[in-house]
Amino acid sequence: MAMMCRSFLPFVLISLFISFCFAEIRFVQIHSDARPIIPFDEFRFTHTGRLELNVSQIDLSNKNPDLDLSRVGFFLCTRDMWMYVLQQLTEGDVMCTLDSRLVTLVYDFKSLNGKSNFDTVFPVNNAERYTLLFANCLDQVNVSMTVRSTMYNLEGKQNRRDYLSADETILPSVYFLSSLVYFTLAGVWIYILYKSRHTVSRIHFLMLVLVILNALNLVSEAEYKSCIKRTGSAHGRDVLFYIFNFLKGITLPVLMVSIGTGWSQLKPYLQDKVNKILMIVIPLQVAANIARVILVEIPPFVSYRFAWKMGFAVVDIICYFLVSLPISWSIECEAAQTDGNTAVNLMKLTLLRQYYLVVILYAFLTRALVLPVVTIESYENEHPWTGVLVEELVTVAFYAFTGYKFMPEARNMYSVIDDEAKDVAEPLKLEDDEGKKW
């Protein structure tokens, strides 16, 4: 517990720092940049979309007054059209991106008239996903500036601003409704624990804690997204989301290991190994949650964003692989028993194997499958919330399976680690220790 607290402290500090540095309203500082194209942000507009640009401290490295500043400016372009623009540039049909009819010019520096800043509100009437980019078609000219970009859609008769992309505006409702499912599960589990209160162990309360943490995590994420939807900024509401997400991320692998190795009592043969696994898994989960925080807050076109995304996915999958190891060891321990209680041993072995397969399936569906689905949906589909819904449905099914198979029942043979199992485990531990000596 002390180790978890020490690991939790830097996570909270990083969350607090990052959450106030970024928001859906983007602030970007460009320093002496010579890139011909600088991407900023991406947003799906409706027919009543708006782009606000506030650019200040504009400075060009070349002060020649004869520069053609119409070749420098901001524009919008869809991903589909961008492929054709690149083809035009390659074939020499246009010499500058801003000359292409496939892009929508927002503002060029010729309109500055000697000023070093400008503010503009650009209406977007096409319901498309656009990328905001900056083009610099001047040779050997570096640009410095501070850019504040705000994208939103106007809703209703009162023209309320919706700062969430059109394909994400339903996410707060999806998160909130999903949280109600988890609260319902928690209520059902509390009823089961009350009815079977004489056979309840600590692991059953840990299951309840995990379900409640999932519900609170979704409520905080719904509030976080809702705040961005209304104001364009999280206003610190994301801190609670990151805290609950971290606690859920730590509790889930601990619960899986505890169930897979004999509930709250760890077998002698497995205890040392399981402790070592947890010593690895918990720091990895801390690292994965820090990566999640940074990944959420990094603007979409920052160069190292893909590295953080892949790092988060790899670390998360490694955690689930490590969690599956103690379950596999426990299966081997049960299979080695020759005490004559064939029916009991077979029941335990079958249950362990079922749980092992379900854990692997859960990890595959929620990590190896859902992550690509969410990524693809975010760019190609108008309904990226379907990836979120699939992940939550899989998680609910996994929790329901776990609760059903490991209910607090007096006749649940797996909930009792009998003396015979311990007698078998001790020689296995001795053999393992002797192997280490050799």
Oligomer: single chain
The domain count comes to 2
How big is the Rg?
A: 28 Å
The biggest sheet amounts to: 5 strands, antiparallel
> Termini distance?
34 Å
The percentage of residues in β strands lies in 15-25%
Query: Which second-level CATH architecture of the largest domain applies?
Result: Up-down Bundle
Q: How many separate helices?
A: 10
Number of separate strands:
9
Low-confidence stretches: 1-23, 263-269, 375-380, 413-426
Structural class by SSE content:
alpha+beta
Share of helix, binned: 55-70%
Mean of pLDDT: 78
CATH topology type of the largest domain: Rhopdopsin 7-helix transmembrane proteins
Shape: elongated
CATH class of the largest domain: Mainly Alpha
Succession of helices and strands: HEEEEHEEEEEHHHHHHHH
Main location: membrane
Protein name: Lung seven transmembrane receptor
Membrane topology: Multi-pass membrane protein
Subcellular location: Membrane
